[in-house]
């Protein structure tokens, strides 16, 4: 049975908005909690939260088990938010075969409204067992799904994979980031960042190597402006933080753009970034949502798309905004264990956004899913900081 502990309004999305003037970038309670969702006895985690550009309905996908770590039988489930309507109950998307378990889930939409969903499934989190990278799609907001297809393992011979991240289409090219490791337990020895690339609507996918190094650089997110793409990943070496890659040929080849901490103090561990895009007065803006795992604060930083594509310094530190502290939504009475892994979408290409995040209290304690609205009270300041002329 599902519970909405602080229910105010279901996150519907899709309506046009008139963006109000801004006030301050120092508001630590910027997000408005719309629902805290708990499925009794279940552990719902990772996944995506996106809006269908055609129907305007919203889909939230995630793994559904009883723990963070490997669990045979862990499956893919979802929730559907009908535009200006009710939320469907929890529904299942995929149940693995006996002895296998799903770990990470991610999806995104193409311009025609098709939802492209990926998940990785495993026979265990130990070396020398089976691992698969799977793909399915839905043309009806998750009511029905294609038969899941194995898109193959990375061509570098790595034996294990994770698909945390988004799925984005630009100019008819679909990209899905993922990462691989030598085998379970060996990611710190060697890891690789890949994108799956499709130019035929998801009928076939090619594995494109972005970078392979003897370090742990892993979960990421992509975003595009035309044929130019950025790929942000969490960096679990050195001072931690995030690494950016850039492609100028629609994702065929990639180069390291640089590493950054976005002005954050040294972290013992970073969290996966989430890239998004919208417009202000016709100017394309990129947003990077991220969590400082030490402080458990969810933050966002902005930059003009042209500036962040030109260089990593294009992310404007003056626009960095603290959205909330995960522990401030602590329903379990103890500090959260791992918090974040969120996802945001911007409504009708505007600053107004809706998103999710998660509260984990232990590796086996059920996750609380937080649904948020991102108000636009910082609109005026954001225009000023980015040098965008009012119209």
List the helices and strands and how they pair.
Blueprint: E1 2-4, E2 32-39, E3 43-51, E4 58-65, E5 75-81, E6 91-94, E7 101-109, E8 115-122, E9 131-138, E10 149-150, E11 160-162, E12 168-170, E13 173-181, E14 191-198, E15 206-213, E16 217-225, E17 228-235, E18 242-247, E19 255-260, E20 274-280, E21 283-292, E22 297-304, H1 305-310, E23 316-325, E24 338-346, E25 353-360, E26 368-374, H2 379-386
Antiparallel strand pairs: 1-2, 2-26, 3-4, 4-5, 5-6, 7-8, 8-9, 9-10, 11-13, 12-13, 13-14, 14-15, 16-17, 17-18, 18-19, 20-21, 21-22, 22-23, 24-25, 25-26
**Nearest-angstrom radius of gyration?**
19 Å
Computed structural class: mainly beta
Distance between the termini: 49 Å
Strands of the biggest beta sheet: in what spatial order?
1-2-26-25-24
Percent of residues in beta strands = over 45%
Give the ordered list of helices and strands: EEEEEEEEEEEEEEEEEEEEEEHEEEEH
**Most strands sheet:** 5 strands, antiparallel
The overall strand count is: 26
Residue ranges: pLDDT <50 for 5 or more in a row? 1-28
Helix content: under 10%
- Count of separate DSSP helical elements: 2
- Mean pLDDT across residues: 87
Give the overall silhouette.
globular
What does this structure look like?
With 391 residues, the chain is mostly beta strands. The chain has two helices and 26 strands. A five-stranded antiparallel sheet has the order 1-2-26-25-24, with no helix packed on it. The protein is globular, with a radius of gyration of 19 Å. 47% of the residues are buried. Residues 1-28 have low confidence and may be disordered. This is Sialidase domain-containing protein. InterPro entries: Sialidase, Sialidase_sf. Residues 110-262 form the Sialidase domain.
């Amino acid at each position: 049975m599902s519970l909405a502990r602080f229910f105010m309004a279901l996150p519907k999305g899709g309506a046009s908005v008139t963006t109000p003037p801004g006030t301050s970038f120092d508001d630590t309670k910027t997000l408005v909690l719309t629902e805290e969702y708990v499925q009794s006895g279940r552990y719902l985690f990772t996944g995506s939260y996106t809006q269908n550009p055609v129907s305007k309905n919203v889909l939230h996908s995630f793994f559904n088990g009883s723990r963070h770590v490997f669990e045979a039988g862990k499956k893919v489930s979802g929730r559907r938010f009908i535009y200006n309507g009710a939320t469907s109950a929890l529904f299942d998307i995929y149940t693995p075969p006996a002895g296998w378990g799903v770990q990470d889930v991610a999806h995104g939409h193409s311009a025609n409204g098709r939802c492209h969903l990926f998940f990785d499934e495993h026979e265990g989190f130990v070396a020398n067992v089976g691992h698969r990278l799977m793909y399915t799609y839905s043309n009806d907001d998750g009511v029905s799904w294609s038969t899941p297809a194995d898109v193959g393992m990375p061509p570098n011979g790595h034996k294990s994979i994770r698909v945390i991240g988004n799925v984005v289409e630009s100019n008819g090219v679909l990209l899905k980031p993922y990462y691989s490791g030598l085998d379970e337990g060996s990611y710190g020895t060697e890891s690789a960042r890949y994108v799956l690339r499709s130019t035929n609507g998801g009928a076939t996918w090619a594995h494109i190597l972005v970078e392979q190094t003897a370090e742990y650089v892993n979960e990421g997110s992509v975003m595009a402006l035309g044929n130019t793409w950025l790929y942000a990943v969490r960096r679990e070496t050195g001072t931690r933080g995030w690494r950016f890659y850039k492609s100028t040929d629609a994702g065929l080849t990639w180069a390291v753009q640089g590493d950054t901490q976005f002005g954050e103090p040294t972290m013992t561990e970073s969290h996966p970034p989430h890239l998004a895009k919208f417009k202000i007065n016709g100017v394309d803006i990129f947003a990077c949502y991220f969590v400082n795992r030490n402080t458990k604060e969810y933050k966002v930083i902005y930059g003009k798309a042209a500036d962040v594509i030109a260089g990593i310094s294009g992310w404007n530190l003056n626009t960095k905004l603290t959205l909330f502290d995960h522990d401030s939504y602590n329903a379990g009475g103890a500090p959260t264990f791992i918090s974040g892994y969120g996802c945001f979408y911007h409504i009708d290409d505007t600053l107004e956004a809706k998103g999710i995040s998660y509260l984990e209290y232990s590796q086996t304690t059920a996750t609380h899913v937080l649904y948020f609205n991102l108000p636009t009270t910082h609109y005026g300041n954001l225009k000023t900081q980015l040098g965008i002329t009012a119209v």
